[in-house]
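anyone seen this seq b4? input:
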Amino acid sequence: MTPFAVIFPAAGRSVRYGAGRSKLLEDLGGKSVLRRAVEAFACRQDASAIVIAAPPDDIASLKEALGELTGDRRVKFCAGGACRAESVRNALREAPKDLDWIAVHDAARPLVSQGLITRTMEAAREHGAAVPATPVALTIKQAVGPLPAKVVRTVPRHELWAMQTPQIMRRAELLVAFETCPIPLDQVTDDAQLLEWSGKPVWLAEGEERNLKITTPADLQIARMLL
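predicted toks r here
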């Protein structure tokens, strides 16, 4: 087994969720969304550290949502940033320095499977960095918004893949990627994107439709049905 630290960026304000409540605190089969996401890694012997980046004012409620997992010595909270990439960078600095591998997982992906985590780690070890992905099933049109807008072209979807998490990479390479990022961090939408800009290869591993990200209340209902 390859020991690694897993980072959960959890500093978002659930604006798109729109329920006046953090989606991470919502009930999913008797446990919070956050707890299910963290449990998927806490049950693994190779997950040596778990760092959750969150707004300081929210840490108390998130700890409560974790239940007895807060007593796990591997679990640590740190202050989140103004955007996802800043939260990941803050958590990266708090992760144990002796762990060479970092996994970044969306705190709002509570149904990630052990098989997905394992095969993504295996792909990362072989190629340097790996991200689970699923094929894009919809037809994609390129246009300059806002709508209504004229279609520029239809993008061939056989070459398009939708990214999931955990995104797994070497700690040292991610640190360098942050230092050399050519754009403001609030424009970074994907963790592995940082490595791409620094010239490091990123490979795709097989994702799962079940590994959905809860963004809206409808997504939570789908997760409940899948569970």
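The chain has one domain: 4-226. The first strand starts at residue 4 and ends at 9. kinda curious what u guys think
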